[in-house]
């Protein structure tokens, strides 16, 4: 499992919205916005929402245990200054525990174990 740098963790702490990419049994890609939290104890990205267990992303991870999440923002538009963190890895669809992640999370959630990390604009 890949370890995130302290700068990458600080960036994650300041963000609340990312886009998760999954693929189901048919291999077709699916990308949607989602909330997430960085789990310091496990070095994972925990992805959630109110009704995650009823979503395509959750079913996709059950069928194909790989996912990616991108978190990005713009520091400035003049000059153009984007930042981006992409995390790919093995994913689990978990039935409970998501409620402890914070406001806006239901019981079910997706846990991504970082295998590959790409970043831009994050020291």
Cα distance spanning the termini: 21 Å
Order of helices and strands: HEEEHEEE
Please give the number of β-strands: 6
> Radius of gyration over alpha carbons?
14 Å
Outline: globular
Number of helices: 2
Index terms:
123 residues, mainly beta, six-stranded antiparallel beta barrel, 2 helices
Tell me about this structure.
The protein is mainly beta and 123 residues long. 13% of the residues lie in helices and 50% in strands. The chain is built from 2 helices and 6 strands; from the N terminus they run αβββαβββ. It has helices at residues 6-13, 56-63, and strands at residues 17-23, 29-39, 44-48, 66-77, 80-94, 109-120. A 6-stranded antiparallel β-barrel has the order 1-2-3-6-5-4. The longest helix is centred in the N-terminal third of the chain and has 8 residues, at 6-13. The chain is globular. The model has no long low-confidence stretch (mean pLDDT 95).
